[in-house]
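WARN  no MSA supplied for this record, continuing single-sequence
INFO  ligand: manganese (II) ion
INFO  echoing inputs
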Amino acid sequence: MKITWFGHSNFQIESNKKILIDPFFKGNPAIKDQSIVDEIEVDFVIITHAHADHLGDTIEICKRTGAIAIANFEIVNHLTEKGVKAHPLHIGGKKKFDWGFIKLVPAVHGSSFQDGSYGGYPAGVVINIEGKNIYHCGDTGLSYEFMMIGETMDIDLVMLPVGDNFTMDVHDAAIAAKWVKTKKVIPMHYNTFDLIKVEKDEIIESFKDFDLILMDPGETVNM
Ligand code: NI
Ligand code: MN
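INFO  complex generated
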């Protein structure tokens, strides 16, 4: 499978299905060519929480492609009202497919829409595809939830926020990776804005015991 990082928390997983997570393209300073939003092909769009830098261009992408949005019940209600096909989940629940599953897990954060309305509980997501478990943590601080996930699922790869200020910093993120019991780490949610600037050397140092996949926005890796 191929994994592409579009900067911030925006990833595409390409396998027999195309899955987008937190599709923040328009207004994302990390992406030079924001017109990707008009071309990208996708089957499922997962939204971890309602903040604008994660909900992003979900509505536009789902309407153009017919992709199914997957998020918590509150976000799905919001999207369904706007005419998007969507499937509601909530924390701890999963949707099974013939190719794997999508499961929402806890995140410690907020989840309001731009207008301040309630966006439900924030989430991370575990995507089971090609027999691998890929864990995208959404926005979160360090919590014992990581230990719970490490105890209950075999995680092959984790995407961890490292930008500090709104989420964990690199130090806490390395503890989270240890608790999740995975070697493969992709850092995210950093260097998009001034408030979440992190030196790459600091990331490399913090994750020296891990198989660190340090991506540039727009880069694709094969898994
Ligand atoms: Ni957020
Ligand atoms: Mn965020």
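The helical segments are 52-55, 58-65, 73-81, 145-152, 170-180, 200-206.
INFO  checksum written, moving to next record
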